[in-house]
Amino acid sequence: MASSEIPVPTVVNPWTKQSLLELITTRMQDVKFIVVSNREPYIHKRAGGQIRCVQPASGLASALDPVMRACGGTWVAHGSGDADREVTGRSGRIKVPLESPSYTLRRVWLTKEQEQEYYYGLANEGLWPLCHVAFHRPHFIQKTWDAYRQVNQLFADVVLEEAAGDPAFVFIQDYHFGLLPRMLKNHAPNLYVAQFWHIPWPNRETFRAFPWKEELLDGMLGNDLLGFHLRYHCANFLDTVDRNVEARIEHEHSEVTHGGKTTMVRPFPISIDFEWHESMARSPEMDNMMEFWRKEIGAVPECLGIGIDRVDYTKGIPERLQALDMFFENHPEYRGRVGFAQVGVPSRTQISDYRQLNDDIESQTARLNEKWGRGDWVPIHLFRGEYSRTQLTALHRLADFCMVSPLHDGMNLVAKEFVASRFDDHGVLILSSFAGSARELTDALLVNPFSIDEMADAVFRAVSMPTAEATRRMQRLRAATAENNIYRWAGKILLALLKIESSAPEPEPVPNWEWEGVSVPF
Ligand code: GDG
C-alpha cells in the first residue's frame, strides 16, 4: 500500500494532565514526590538592571515542567542563574512558576570549580560524547570524576533533607547523577528511586573506554527503576552490565540483580504536552509573533525551511547546512525560492569545542549566503539566541518544512513540537533516523544525517511533495505524537514505580537522622 493510502489512526484515550493528576491523587497521597536534575526549570537572570525569569532551552526541562505542574512536589536542581540567590529564601526554596505557583524548586549551590569539573568536565566532555558516539572524543580526567562524585553526594544530602525520613518517590534525571541512586538507597531504603537517562546508552564496546565503569554502573544499579528512551538503549545497558559487574540479568523481564538488589530497566519514550503546544499555535498572539519573524527574515521565501537546536555537535547543524548547499547546487530551479531559518541557542560555551562550533556555523552560513544569495533573497538566516516558546511556535507555523538532523539523539523534542504546532496539517518533517523520535515519527522523511546526498535529496522531496501526501503524513505524525504524550511518559513511569512499591517487603525502620546542616557520610 502506498504511504498516502495508510489510514490515519484515531487517538484512543490518550493520557492527559487530568488522568496523571488522578493517578497521583488516588495512588500517591502518602508519598512525597522529589525530582532531581542538574538544570533547573526556571532561571533568574540579571538583564539591563532587572531580574528576568527564563525557561532554559533544554529538552529535559521542557518535558518535565508540565509533569511537575500536574504533580506538585519538589524539584531539586543546581541554582545556576546570576540572580537565583537574590530571589530565593535562605532555605534555597522558591515556588514556581511565578504566575501560578504549583511546585517547589529547591536550588543547590555549586562552586564555580564544582560546576566546571562535574558539569562541563565529567558530564559534558566525558559522558555526553561517550554516550552519543558522534565521533567526538570524550575526555576522562580524574579530578572531574572526583568532582562528579562530590556533587552527587551534595545532591544526595539535599534530597535526604527534603525527604526528611518520610517515604518518597525520587525521580532522578540524566547522566549528571549516575552515583546518586546508590547513595540514596544506602541511607534511606524507604525511598523509591527511579532514574531517567535522557541520552543514548552506547554499546558495551564503546563503554569500555570509560575508566570508572564499575563505580558508575554500581551507582546506577542503586535505582529501583531505570528508564531509557528506547528498548535498544536498555539492551545496550544490560549488555554493558553483563560485561562489567557481578550481576544476574533476567533478559526476559529486563531486570538486573546486583548485590541483592533488583533494578527494573525499561524503555519510556519521552514526549511533549501536545495539547499545550497545539493551543499555543492556535492562540491569537501567534499573528503578532509570525509578523515578528516575517520582519526578522525580511522577504519570506516562497518555501521556508526551519531548524531549531541548541548549538551542539550532536545536532548535526553543519551537516544540515552542507545538505542545503548541495540542494541549491543540484536544483537551480529552487534558487531564490527556498530559504532556511536556523535558530541556534548557544549552549555549553565554556567548552572550547562548542565555541568553535558556533564560529564554524556562522562562517559556513556566511559562505553559503555569499555563494547563492542574490537580490533580496538570503538563502540561510541564522538566529543565534534564545527565543520564547511562543516565538518558536510561530516559527513552526510559518514553515513549510522542518529539518531535525542530529547525528545521534536520545529522543529530540523539536520534531514533536513542530508536529504539535501544525494543526493545519501542513509542513513536512525531515528527521534523522538516529534520533529516538524516528521510532515513532515514521511518517517523517527519515534520513541518514551522515549522508549529505541523502539529506539534500530529502530537502528536494520536502519542497516538491504533493500537498495531499504532505497532509496525510502530517496527520499521522500528529496522531502518533498526541497519543504518546508527556503525560503518558510520566504516567507509565509512576505506574512502574507504584508496582515496585506495592510488591516491596515491609521496610526496615528508618534511622532518625539529624537533617539540618549534617552531611550524611556515604
Ligand atoms: C536531551 C536529549 C531528549 C530550543 N531553542 C530554544 C528552546 N529550545 C527547546 C526546544 C526543545 C528543547 O529546547 C530541546 O530539546 P531536545 O530534545 O533537542 O534536547 P536536548 O536539550 O539535547 O535534551 C534529547 C531530551 O533530553 C528530553 O529527554 O529529547 O535527546 O539530548 O524543547 O523547543 N527553548 C527556548 N528558547 C529557545 O531558543 N525557551
What does this entry look like structurally?
It is a single chain. This protein is α/β, with parallel strands linked by helices. The chain has 2 domains: 254 residues, Glycogen Phosphorylase B (Rossmann fold); 206 residues, Glycogen Phosphorylase B (Rossmann fold, 3-Layer(aba) Sandwich). The chain is built from 18 helices and 18 strands. The strands form 3 sheets. It has a 10-stranded mixed beta sheet, with helices on both faces. Helix 1 crosses helix 2, helix 4 packs across helix 5 and helix 11 crosses helix 14. The longest helix has 22 residues. The structure holds GDP-alpha-D-glucose (GDG). GDP-alpha-D-glucose binds next to helix 2, strand 13, strand 14, helix 14 and helix 15.
Main β-sheet description: 10 strands, mixed
Helix content: 40-55%
Individual helix count: 18
In whole angstroms, how far apart are the ends?
60 Å
Beta-strand proportion = 15-25%
Question: Tell me, what is the CATH class of the largest domain?
Answer: Alpha Beta
What is the residue-averaged pLDDT?
92
Number of strands: 18
CATH superfamily of the largest domain: Glycogen Phosphorylase B
What is the count of structural domains? 2
At the fold tier of CATH, the topology name of the largest domain is Rossmann fold
Kindly report the spatial arrangement of strands forming the biggest sheet: 5-6-4-1-7-8-9-12-11-10
Please tell me what the overall shape is: globular
CATH architecture of the largest domain: 3-Layer(aba) Sandwich
Outline the low-pLDDT stretches: 508-522
Molecules bound to protein: GDP-alpha-D-glucose
Write down the Rg.
23 Å
